[in-house]
Amino acid sequence: MKPLAFKMRPQNIDEVVGQQHLVGPGKIIRRMVDAKLLSSMILYGPPGTGKTSIASAIAGSTKYAFRKLNAATDSKKQLEQVVEEAKFSGTVILLLDEIHRLTKPKQDYLLPHLENGEIVLIGATTENPYISINPAIRSRTQIFEVFPLTQDDIKQAVNRALKDKQNGLGSLNIKLDDDALEQLSLATFGDLRSALNALELACKSTQPDDHNEIIITLNIINDCLQKKSLVHDKNGDAHYDTISAFQKSIRGSDVDAALHYLARLIEAQDLPTISRRLITIAYEDIGLANMPAVTRTVLAVQAAERIGFPEARIPLADSVIELCLSPKSNSGILAIDSALNDIKSGNYGSIPNHLKDAHYKGAKNLGHGTTYKYPHDFPHDWVKQDYLPQSMKDKQYYYPKENGAFETSLGQQYRRLKEAQNK
């Protein structure tokens, strides 16, 4: 009853599909295995990309005992049993799933056994270990990222499973149509476990034809594929990577890339994140270069939130296209961040007396507000007057850009006022 994905796990390093940057000839894990100089490691990446397979292959190639535990669900006692086994029989390779959920008591127990080499720990996680894993564990392990498998990798593994008579489906007379194989390699987004699960379900639930042949068509594969989102856990790495790529694509004026990442977020039905991020992008990256586009973005987000999916995709797409093709300016965020840096570093002086509140009795005795000049009483509603603290009177935070007509005109006015103030 073991699933196909389990039975097809590699028995040695040569059988690992994908992740050739780690297990290919001359690469670091291959070198560790060849030299039998294993060190503890953490493998992190999306589900179904080969973390458990690599651990199993390392154990098979080195002939060390291989044990698998889950940091979240298995107890400290089970951990102790693995350590006792290592003390009596030699080194044990321990695959610890969900290592980011390892509790401190389990961690404290495990650390000495990692240091003396009794346990070679292979931690597996979908979370970024630099964020989610305790530094004490990180400092004793090497960290390797694994990536979604390519379509060719998936096809290779599927064909291997179809031919393997001992562990795979080779004992069945199966004909997998080319377009079904293509869909299997494409629609699982690099997750080999999902591909093999769908293949097994398709083959074992399809009746043979008159020639005793099980023909797997595109429609059958589609029926057996579990819908999988490119954006995984909304608190996970893939989610934040997608948001980052979304903003950077708009900032870089790449319409097609921005629409691609918008589609990922739409597929995840994450309208709140899209709304927040899109308004942030509008003000941060387009800003004063095209304020009408910023305003239209806010309106597009309001429309999307009011109508909901699937129709919300239309105003969102319109806004993304406009922001991509709009002139860009980040002068606003640079200006306020520069001012904030001064405040946080203590670089500020006293507010000039003529700007201080003068509405209360006694303010005049203090000299507060007595020499203030009301700009609307002067021609063009402007009068030369100091506003910054005296110690910062020449400070400049805003540096206009000329990437759009609106900010170009703002910049011209800014420079005129500066010149008049300095006369």
Would you summarize the structure shown here?
This protein is α/β, with parallel strands linked by helices and 423 residues long. It is built from 20 helices and seven strands. 51% of the residues lie in helices and 8% in strands.
Task: Give the key terms.
423 residues; alpha/beta; Rossmann fold; Helicase, Ruva Protein, domain 3; two-stranded parallel sheet; 8% strand
Detailed description of the structure:
By secondary structure, the chain is α/β, with parallel strands linked by helices. The chain is built from 20 helices and seven strands. Helix 5 packs parallel to helix 6, helix 9 packs across helix 10 and helix 10 packs parallel to helix 12. 31% of the residues are buried.
Chain-wise SSE layout:
Blueprint: H1 4-7, H2 20-23, H3 28-35, E1 41-44, H4 51-62, E2 65-70, H5 76-89, E3 92-97, H6 104-115, E4 119-125, H7 129-132, H8 135-138, E5 142-145, H9 151-163, E6 174-176, H10 178-187, H11 192-205, E7 214-216, H12 218-224, H13 237-251, H14 255-267, H15 271-286, H16 291-307, H17 313-325, H18 331-344, H19 363-366, H20 405-422
Parallel strand pairs: 1-4, 1-5, 2-3, 3-4, 6-7
